[in-house]
Amino acid sequence: MLKRDITNPLYLHFLGGFVEGEGSNSVSVSINKKFKYGINIQPVFNVSQHKNGLNILYSFKELFNSGSVVEKSGSPDIYVYTLKGYKQIIKYVIPFLETYVQTFSCKKEEYYIFKEIVLQSSEGKQKNKDTLIEMVKLSYKLQGKGKTRKRELSEILEIITAAQ
């Protein structure tokens, strides 16, 4: 049995494999009149696990020195580690993913889209209407297993376009 130790490279590879199977990189798209163009995008890193594996989720919290572990709504006994925001993701998640996940990943295309959105966010590109539109279009390419967005892309683009 591999002991929980975030300083052990073998354990970090174990966590990397765990992310490949139980993790996701996504971008939430929120609507609110207070946002400059009525839309906000936020990169999100998640890992899910049954309550029996809570120690694994807390390993991510310890490793990244941030994020939260909460029960997944509507799924008793399932918990989710979540880290939001481009600053934290650039500082912690991307280096981890590059080293321990991407080498062996079958989700490379999704990762590169996610990374592009995160890097554009760090450059403030969501503050410009045209680049925000491009970032939202990229975000809509990230569709998780069986997941659909609440709103069609056209509805989101209409909100941005109508904003002053």
Major sheet: arrangement of strands: 1-2-4-3
Number of helices: 6
Number of domains: 1
Whole-Å distance between the termini? 58 Å
Helix content range = 40-55%
The largest pleated sheet is described as: 4 strands, antiparallel
Please identify which CATH superfamily we are dealing with. Answer: Homing endonucleases
**Briefly, what CATH class?**
Alpha Beta
Annotation, overall tally of beta strands: 4
Structural class: alpha+beta
Mean pLDDT: 93
Structure description:
The model has no long low-confidence stretch (mean pLDDT 93). 48% of the residues lie in helices and 20% in strands. With 164 residues, the chain is of the alpha+beta class. It has one domain (9-162): Homing endonucleases (Endonuclease I-creI, Roll). A four-stranded antiparallel beta sheet has the order 1-2-4-3. It is globular. Helix 5 runs antiparallel to helix 6 (153-162). Strand 1 and strand 2 form a beta hairpin.
Q: In brief, what are we looking at here?
A:
The chain is an alpha+beta fold and 164 residues long. It contains six helices and four strands, in the order αββαββαααα.
Write the layout of secondary structure elements.
Layout: H1 9-22, E1 23-31, E2 39-50, H2 54-64, E3 68-71, E4 78-84, H3 86-100, H4 108-122, H5 129-141, H6 153-162
Helix pairs in contact: 1-3, 3-4, 4-5, 5-6
